[in-house]
Amino acid sequence: MEVLLDILTALLILSVSALCVYLIFFLKRTTQTLEKLQDDIHRLADKADPVLSKLDSVSDNISFVVDELKEHVLAIGDVLHQAKDKAESLLNIDKKIKTSLENSPIADLYRRLNGVSKGVSAFWNTYKRK
After folding, report:
1. For 57-113, how does the pLDDT look when each residue is reduced to its tens digit (9 = 90+)?
2. End-to-end distance of the chain based on CA atoms, in angstroms?
3. Which residue, 49, 84, 98, 128, is the most exposed by fewest CB within 10 angstroms?
4. Which residues form the domain of 50?
5. 3-class SS at 104?
6. How many angstroms separate the CA atoms of 69 and 71, rounded?
7. pTM summary value
8. DSSP letters along 42-73, please?
9. Is the separation of the CB atoms in 114 and 120 below 8 Å?
10. Is 96 helix (H, G, I), strand (E, B) or coil?
11. What confidence tier does 37 reach under pLDDT thresholds 50, 70, 90?
């Protein structure tokens, strides 16, 4: 029985040794994989830095353009508002001129003369028929 225990102990020691060797190789492969991953991450970071700086520059340019557009839109709005005010002012002046001409003594005289002219014309037309 003692021999069997010695054989089983030897097998156990050999199994543990084989497991330790396998564990060493596994850890070495894991370490190599992690080192490759770290190198890939560093390369990616090196490539991402210029892209991010350009993106920042583009963002600044877009901000500048948007600010300029806002200023131009406000200026156009002011110009349109001034044009609207001028148009309303011209319409008011036109209305004032029309009302002043309609209520003026000259317009009244014109209407009366026009009425007299029509009356005389009607009279002569009727006189000629008889």
Report:
1. 999 999 999 999 999 999 999 999 999 999 898 888 878 877 776 777 777 788 888
2. 167
3. 128
4. 2-129
5. coil
6. 5
7. 0.47
8. HHHHHHHHHHHHHHHHHHHHHHHHHHHHHHHH
9. no
10. helix
11. very high
Q: For the chain, what is the HEC assignment?
A: CHHHHHHHHHHHHHHHHHHHHHHHHHHHHHHHHHHHHHHHHHHHHHHHHHHHHHHHHHHHHHHHHHHHHHHHHHHHHHHHHHHHHHHHHHHHHHHHHHHHHHCCHHHHHHHHHHHHHHHHHHHHHHHHHC
Amino acid at 91: L
Q: How many Å apart are CA 29 and CA 40, to the nearest integer?
A: 16
Which amino acid belongs to residue 120? V
Our count of domains for the chain comes to 1
3-state secondary structure of 1: coil
| The pLDDT value given to residue 13 | 96
Both structure tokens of 26:
């596994």
Q: How far is C-alpha 14 from the geometric centre of its chain's CA atoms?
A: 72
